[in-house]
Design a protein that fits this description.
This protein is of the alpha/beta class. It is built from 14 helices and 28 strands. Strand 14 and strand 15 form a beta hairpin. Bound molecules: ligand 8PZ. The site of ligand 8PZ has 21 residues, from helix 7, strand 14, strand 21 and strand 22.
Length: 534
């Protein structure tokens, strides 16, 4: 290629390191449309990335020009994001499920030079990117080239943008998190140092490509010289299919949100015993309800379960093994200490650093892997990239996470909840997570979510619970009586309902906005029993 190699840290260089050392090793194992597994070696993946890069380079794009990649995780999608990285073209990943309106708003915001969609996906007539292309194992075909531009840049630097991830918009407007090559490479090197995955691993990635948990899987697998195993959406559609796929693909590490495991735990937990090669499960994105976590540990006696905590603004902050067994009575999971090279500090409401064990504060993250800023949103950026609370005089910025944690005796943190899940009821501060934790201590309840619901000009607390089997029944009166014994009166929900499942966002987290709506309407959920705490 004519272009100079990227100087300094670059995602392409880090992820294609193994191509020089173990070129014949499978980089990706994936199922085709018929469910047949295929391997792609590191050598072939690098070749495909180079082919794509040659086509992109021919378009005359400048360093910094954005490329929207619409795809599920696949070898071809990985090759395309590698090609973009090599050329300094920030990629913006969106999943094929993204509604037109949301994709349109992303496209209007980032004004991409190219919208590249995976082969087989329909064209989006309403989406007006400058250029369009489709890509697959056979190559990258440009359908409409972007307008020629004057190249103002030549070299790809470590400070250049690697990707932009739009955070899920269930609350507020979506923000484009801009990550530099330096940030993501620094982060992934910390994962190598902490040996999250090894070259012998087969790493299953289950999140949609627009969620950085998917980019994490790609990054961790390839930088370790391991094998990435993208799990297709259809293979997640039933517990039997999911477990069958993970078993047949010889998966040793699974990445997924807690809700990934809920259906199999609820309907067919014995299937988990088939995963004999599984050595570790990494979950992230939200709290794992403790009863479900215990059950998962029980059914996977040979696997480590790792709590990955953090936000897209730094990809992640910490990875902590869930203790085995989980001590009785434990409600809050440890998020431990920050990963290698980073540090978490708790800050109280007055801006002071929390140093006394047992106290709670907001997590501030100090890390060389922080994001650059929100795309075209300096105000939102300034709200979270703030002066270091320990000593602001350095002028150095840290990430204000919006998450609350409690300080443990050894400086480790326990996750308490988001600052915005803290609600006010008639002047009392209520942590929704505390109500949820109480409800999950009830026998038969495996997960719970509480919400503040508008009711007759006021707000009331309501809760939904998931039970441990399809035929289990909720004694709602007893549940409320239990809450009344365990919690201050103002924290006792007005009602509690059993639901077959909690509503989820496109990234698989509990959709609290939707839950609030459903709880607000008397028959909004498909549930059965409904008790009132008048
Ligand atoms: C959590 C947890 C947790 C996130 N316990 N609350 C990617 C790859 C590996 C690990 C972590 C990631 C994250 N980027 C995933 C993610 O959810 N990012 S996010 O920006 O969409 O949301 C971040 C927020 O989710 C955090 O601020 C927490 O509120 C919550 N969260 N992981 C409890 N293990």
């Amino acid at each position: 290629m004519e272009r100079p190699d990227p100087s300094g840290d670059n995602l392409y260089r880090l992820l294609m390191g193994p191509a020089a050392v173990t070129p014949d090793k499978p980089a990706v194992v994936e199922a085709d449309a018929d469910g047949v597994l295929h391997e792609m070696s590191y050598r072939r993946l690098e070749g495909l990335a180079q082919e794509y890069a040659a086509v992109l380079d021919g378009l005359g794009l400048d360093v910094g020009d954005r490329v929207v990649i619409e795809a599920d995780t696949s070898a071809a999608a990985v090759a395309l994001l590698l090609a973009c990285s090599l050329l300094g073209l920030p990629f913006v990943t969106v999943s094929p499920q993204t509604p037109d309106t949301r994709l349109l708003s992303i496209v209007r915001s980032v004004e991409p030079a190219l919208h590249a969609r995976a082969e087989g996906l329909a064209r989006r007539e309403r989406v007006e990117a400058q250029g369009s292309a489709r890509f697959g194992p056979g190559g990258l075909v440009v359908e409409r080239p972007p307008a020629r531009r004057v190249r103002r840049r030549r070299s790809v630097l470590a400070t250049d943008t690697a990707y932009i991830v739009f955070t899920s918009g269930s609350t507020g407007r979506p923000k484009g998190v801009v990550m530099s090559h330096r940030a993501i490479v620094t982060f992934l090197r910390a994962m190598l140092q902490d040996a999250l995955a090894g070259s012998g691993d087969r790493v299953a990635s289950t999140s949609p490509l627009q969620f950085d948990f998917a980019l994490f899987g790609i990054g961790v697998a390839l930088s370790s010289g391991a094998t990435l195993v993208p799990v297709r959406r259809e293979d997640l559609s039933s517990p039997r299919r999911m477990i069958g796929f993970l078993r047949d693909a010889g998966v040793t590490q699974v990445h997924g949100v807690p809700s990934l495991w809920r259906p199999v735990l609820r309907h067919d937990a014995d299937l988990l015993k088939e995963l004999e090669r599984l050595r570790s499960v990494v979950f992230a994105g939200e709290e794992f309800p403790v009863p479900e976590l215990r059950r998962l540990q029980e059914m996977l006696p040979g696997a480590r379960i790792v709590n990955g905590y953090g936000a897209t603004e730094s990809m992640a902050a910490s990875f902590t093994d869930v203790p085995r067994p989980l001590p009785a009575g434990q409600e809050r999971l440890s998020i431990g200490h920050a990963h290698a090279g980073a540090e978490m500090t708790l800050v109280d409401e007055r801006g002071g650093v929390v140093t006394r064990p047992g106290l709670t504060g907001e997590i501030y993250l100090r890390s060389p892997a922080l994001f650059t800023g929100y795309w075209n949103d300096p105000e939102a950026t300034a709200a979270v990239l703030v002066d270091d609370p320990v000593d602001p005089r350095h002028g150095h910025k840290v990430l204000r996470t919006g998450d609350l944690a409690r300080l443990g005796p050894e400086g480790e943190l326990s996750f308490v909840g988001r600052c915005d899940f803290q609600v006010q009821i008639h002047g009392n501060r209520v942590e929704l997570g505390e109500i949820e934790g109480t409800l999950t201590r009830l026998p038969g309840v495996t997960a719970a979510a509480a919400a503040l619901v508008p009711r007759a000009g006021d707000h009331v607390l309501m809760a939904a619970v998931v039970l441990d089997g399809p035929t289990a029944e909720l004694d709602a009166g007893a549940a409320l009586a239990f809450c009344a014994r365990e919690l201050p009166a103002y924290m006792v929900p007005r009602s509690v309902r059993a639901v077959a499942e909690l509503p989820l966002t496109e990234n698989g987290k509990v959709d609290r906005a939707l839950l609030t709506q459903k709880l607000a309407s008397p028959r909004g959920t498909s549930d059965v029993r409904h008790a009132t705490n008048a």
